[in-house]
Amino acid sequence: MSQSKRCTVIVGSQWGDEGKGKIVDVLAESVDVVARYQGGANAGHTVHVGSDEFVLHQIPSGILHPARRCLLGNGVVFDPFQFFEELDALAARGIDAEPRVGVSGRAHLLLAYHKMLDRAAEARRGAGKIGTTGRGIGPAYEDKVARQGIRVADLRDPARMEDLLGRAAERVNERLGAFGSDEQVDLHALCDEVLSIRERLLALSVDTGRVLHDALRAGERVLLEGAQGALLDVDHGTYPYVTSSNTTAGGAALGVGIGPTAIDAVVGVVKAYTTRVGEGPLPTEFPSPMQEHVRQLGGEFGATTGRPRRCGWFDAVVVRYAARVNGLTGLAMTKLDVLDTLPELKIAVGYRAGGALLDDFPGDLGLLEEAEPVYESLPGWEKSTADARRWADLPDAAQAYLRRIEALTEVPIQYVSVGTRRDQIIHVQHG
Ligand code: GDP
Predict the structure, then answer these.
(1) Atom 11, ligand 1: which residue's CA is nearest?
(2) What would the pLDDT profile of 72-128 be if each residue is shown by its tens digit?
(3) 334 and 368 share a domain?
(4) What is the pLDDT of residue 327?
């Protein structure tokens, strides 16, 4: 990252799983603090360091670099049990992360009852299901917006904590009953559970906005790490097939407690093709058997749920839209190597829908469901890119593919990832 860019946002610019974990890991090399700004334990970052594979759900992947401080902002819904499990797993592998992490006192707690509600609500939806990960993210954000959430700072006073938990249990049990679920919250067990992590958690509680403000003032560099992707943003994504938070760059300032003027750069992470998990529109989705072929080539199975991801061609309509909504200053393209064996590649440059040619991503779900992509065809390179470390190492056809994507999205590609390992990255020099 260049010296002048002190606060950079990393944002998924498709439907999530773009490989943000790897890009954050690469960029974390040159920053002092990494902070997550939204989402919860439904984010499943996979990072490969040497022959070790780390799957991190809540802790920013910057933690794998010694001395980086990692924060979870107020915009995150925070699952303390899963979080401590992750910290303990890192400790077991020799990474002493706890002294380097901080959690916003304003972050909302995600507790077992949110997961119960998530499962019960999804079961109730039947065929109309959203395809949630069942991790309680939606219900935790619902509590936040309904002003009945419990925040990390609420644990400081045990009497207040017990009162809030009591009210939550009552409310949740009523709703579980209405959903026809046979699960119920046991208030005593819930209080004991939360008490068991209370002190450990309070010791990590910080004001992330203040910490980041001070860090930036002191000349430190900061990375704000998004989870999921722009097309899953509750406002700008394919509603209602979205997550419950603002995944886009605007959510970054909000979700950690700094002002938007503190942000210098926004890097959009995109895959060299497109994937999405769960239900909802995916205009460039491959037909069978191409679908299964690319899924195998790319190992497209969810890191958190193991669910097979739906795969399709690169959609420039989507990424152009993501570029605009996020104010992208650069792209990081991952998984170029996955396309190495394909003889022909397609890029969607527009959609036909509603009797018209659309060059912008529609907000109307009906239009999106009937959208027929208009494709441009490019030759494949049919060579391995796994060992490319400089732009010039890439085959001509791969360079042409990337240049075409830059032209269509009007965003320069700054990084190209050609494999899972840390060193399999090209830093593209511009101008
Ligand atoms: P995230 O949630 O956006 O971090 O994405 P995931 O971690 O769920 O998925 C990314 C997966 O792709 C992980 O298994 C990564 O190791 C892998 N990955 C990342 N970059 C590359 C790449 O350039 N090539 C290949 N083949 N795999 C990659």
Answers:
(1) 19
(2) 999 999 999 999 999 999 999 888 999 999 999 999 999 999 999 999 988 887 766
(3) yes
(4) 98
Residue 22 scores a pLDDT above 60: yes
The enclosing domain of 84 has a CATH number of: 3.40.440.10
Cβ–ligand 1 distance for 254 under 6 Å, the answer no
User: Are 307 and 400 part of one and the same domain?
Assistant: yes
The average pLDDT across 68-73 equals 96
d(CA 220, CA 6): 7
Domain count, the chain: 3
How far is Cα 388 from Cα 406, in angstroms, rounded to an integer?
19
- DSSP category for residue 391: G
The radius of gyration computed from the CA coordinates of the chain, to the nearest angstrom, equals 22
Pocket test for ligand 1, best of 18, 46, 51, 53 (most atoms within 8 A of CB): 46
Same domain, residue pair 177 and 158: yes
For residue range 299-352, list pLDDT tens digits in order. 999 766 788 999 999 999 999 999 999 999 999 999 999 999 999 999 999 999
Residue 1 lies in a domain: no
Domain that holds residue 191: 108-202
Contacts of 419 (CB under 8 A, 6+ apart): 337, 386
- The residue whose CA is least distant from atom 14 of ligand 1 is 46
Query: Does a structural domain hold residue 174?
Result: yes
- With a 6 A CB cut-off, is 334 part of the ligand 1 pocket? yes
Q: How far is the CA of 274 from the centre of ligand 1 (A)?
A: 13
For residues 421 and 293, membership in a common domain is answered with: yes
| Of the residues 202, 220, 243, the one at which a domain ends | 202
Indicate which residues carry an active-site annotation. 17, 45
**Residue 417 CA, closest ligand 1 atom number:** 23
Q: Indicate whether residue 44 lines ligand 1 (CB < 6 A).
A: yes
**Backbone CA torsion sign across 124, 129, 134, 138:** negative
Of the chain, the end-to-end C-alpha distance in Å amounts to: 16
Closest CA to 397 of 333, 345, 348, 349: 345
What pLDDT, on a 0 to 100 scale, did the predictor assign at position 25?
A: 85
